[in-house]
Amino acid sequence: MSADSTTASQGLLDAVIIGGGVSGLAAAWRLRSRRIVLLESQDRLGGRLYSQRASDEDYWLNFGAHLFPAPGGVVDSMARDVGLETLPITGSMMGIAYKDRILTSGRVETYPLRLPLPLREKIAFARAGLRLQRAVARYHKVLAPRPGEAEAESRRRRLAYLDDKTFADFLGALPAGTASIFACAAHRATAEPTSLSAGSGIGLFALVWAGEGSLIARNLVGGPSVLPEALGTALGGRVRLGAKAQRIAPTSGGTQNVEYLVNGRVESVEARHVIVAVPAPIAAPLIAPISLRASESLAAITYGPFLSMAILTNEITAMPWDDVYALATPGRSFDMFTNHAQVLRNTSERAPGGSLMVYAGGDGAAQMMTRPDSEIRETFLADLHTLYPETRGIIAATKIHRWRLGNVYAQPGRHELQGALEGPHGEFRNVHLAGDYFAELGSMEAAAKAGDSAAQHVELSLAQRHGSAPRMGLEDVGADGVVD
Ligand SMILES: Cc1cc2nc3c(=O)[nH]c(=O)nc-3n(C[C@H](O)[C@H](O)[C@H](O)COP(=O)(O)OP(=O)(O)OC[C@H]3O[C@@H](n4cnc5c(N)ncnc54)[C@H](O)[C@@H]3O)c2cc1C
Predict the structure, then answer these.
(1) Best of 302, 402, 444, 452 to mutate for ligand 1, by most ligand atoms within 8 A of CB?
(2) Residue 52 forms part of a structural domain
(3) What is the per-residue pLDDT across 208-263, written as a single tens digit (0 to 9) for each?
(4) 358 within 8 A of 308, measured Cβ to Cβ
(5) H helix or E strand, kind and range, residue 179
(6) Residue 469 has what pLDDT?
(7) pLDDT score of 429 more than 90
(8) Cys-Cys crosslink for 297: which of 24, 133, 218, 420, Cβ 3.0 to 4.6 Å?
(9) 330 vs 102, 203, 269, 300, 340, CA distance in Å?
């Protein structure tokens, strides 16, 4: 990987990929035997997959996405290609902590009875929960894949599902305690119930309630960043770090010229295709010279913030959260508590220390992330100590990360934006969009699928227009990214 090489000798590439998150990486991975360059503005790959190894190497600090999808998808297949394997999470994932009660087992239908809520709240919670359960059953039925259905049509159908009202409209008026529990769930999508579409809110519960069969219930030992790091190593000189794309312009010959800033210099690269794999608000100005309509739709896509704090602990005995992977924490400064050491707890001997993460989403996160780290730390730790008093005295290190574009979520009317996003774009039909925003809820699999699908279009077009151009092995690209 290189941050400072020139592209002058590269000549015409088959594709430039902008963005080294999981979406751009999936695109690059499919096209790895073509002449490609991946431009990433940061000094690391992975985007919202971001973890750091702790100094003792057993644990890792996690800041972003952590739940990996089931085998059979694009992410899993990339992981296997680079010799990695995700493991199923065995700890509780559907727990809830409300006031002084922590529930980590039992059926979710029983939660209203078991949580410390006044009777009026218990009834309201049970009613809303029942409505939601029925809606989730219908969601699975209505949105089941249809044989032979084109990807774009299936996407349109999913995005259109109940997107004429908000999740708050769907739930109806709720007393304060119950409302805070559903708001906490919506914060997992970085939204408030009043801004999230009803279909997406239901989709969120469909995902969370899927339990062991969930599409996202696996971990990567070593931390999520292990995957982008391994892909980056395999892609070698195809990856250019610290390279911020700032303009895409069509050439008279029908190729695209991509201008980017690297080490304070403007450089450019010409390619037959461009895949833009950055979050929608960043993609909007980049694609404006190619398609104003797509640019306007991208600008209208909604993202919310996440504020996460990774915590290393130094306990020497077993802890009450050892069997817990994820806990929703309504009414606290953070919305979720996650235990990133849980996947390591399946051995007979429990190693000392641990790694936790707490994170907030939605309006609360937006307000809190304007405060200094010290204040955020103090607020999060105070709430963590009331949640699990055993965390007092065992905090070894904390690290805060602000995700201003934490996750994409669908607002009512979202499906109307989709037509303009389906590519390819531009006069020469050679600019493609990819990213998690192609789905109603952002996830690494949605992002990877979109990147992989854009790359498949590129592959097809290259094969049709240019015949089977000579394919390159990884060894044909020098460590500085220059094609030999
Ligand atoms: C706290 C948190 C928890 C999450 N939990 C989960 C989870 O458990 N499971 C799950 O599946 N998903 C989860 N997600 C969502 C998931 O991380 C995202 O949906 C997914 O990673 C998005 O990938 P992407 O490639 O579309 O975008 P990104 O990851 O945002 O990648 C875009 C990349 O483009 C780069 N870039 C931006 N501008 C430019 C430019 N001008 N030029 C070049 N490069 C540029 C960025 O630096 C970045 O690397 C979580 C997200 C967060 C923040």
Answers:
(1) 444
(2) no
(3) 776 555 556 899 999 999 999 999 999 999 999 999 999 999 999 999 999 999 99
(4) yes
(5) helix 176-187
(6) 56
(7) yes
(8) 420
(9) 11, 19, 49, 29, 20
Residue 250 burial class via C-beta count within 10 angstroms: exposed 0-12, middle 13-18, buried 19 and up: middle
Distance 417 CA to ligand 1 centre (A): 21
Would you say 136 and 205 are in contact if contact means Cβ atoms under 8 Å apart?
yes
Query: Is the Cβ–Cβ distance between 96 and 327 less than 8 Å?
Result: yes
CATH number of 420's domain: 3.50.50.60
Q: For residue 112, which of 104, 91, 120 has the smallest C-alpha distance? A: 120
Give one DSSP letter per residue of 439-468, joined into a string.
SSB--HHHHHHHHHHHHHHHHHHHHHHH-S
Q: Structure tokens of 434?
A: 């990819």
Nearest residue by C-alpha to atom 51 in ligand 1: 65
Distance between CA 356 and CA 61 in Å, rounded? 8
Inside any domain, residue 140: no
**Residue 483: what pLDDT?**
37
**Residue 224 near residue 357, CB atoms below 8 Å:** no
Range of the domain at 284: 8-47+225-300+413-476
Q: Quick check: 426 and 290 in contact, CB under 8 A?
A: yes
d(CA 338, CA 289): 43
3 state SS of 15? strand
For ligand 1, atom 35: residue with the closest CA: 19
Distance CA 16, CA 263 (A): 19
Region for 148 from its dihedrals, namely left if φ exceeds 0, alpha if ψ lies in -120 to 50, beta otherwise:
left
Rg over CA atoms, the chain: 23
Torsion of CA 271, 272, 273, 274, to 10 degrees: 20
Residues 426 and 293 sit within 8 Å (Cβ to Cβ)? no
Q: Rounded distance, CA 6 to CA 45, Å? A: 20
pLDDT at 6 over 90: no
Which residue type sits at 267?
Answer: E
Q: What is the DSSP letter of 470?
A: P
Q: Name the nearest CA neighbour of 345 among 355, 357, 337, 336.
A: 355
Helices H, strands E: what count in the chain? 14, 19
**Domain assignment of residue 454, yes or no:** yes
Dihedral of alpha carbons 219, 221, 226, 230, sign: negative
How many structural domains compose the chain? 1
Q: Is residue 276 part of a domain?
A: yes
**What residue's CA is closest to ligand 1, atom 38?**
278
- Say yes or no: CB of residue 311 within 6 Å of ligand 1: no
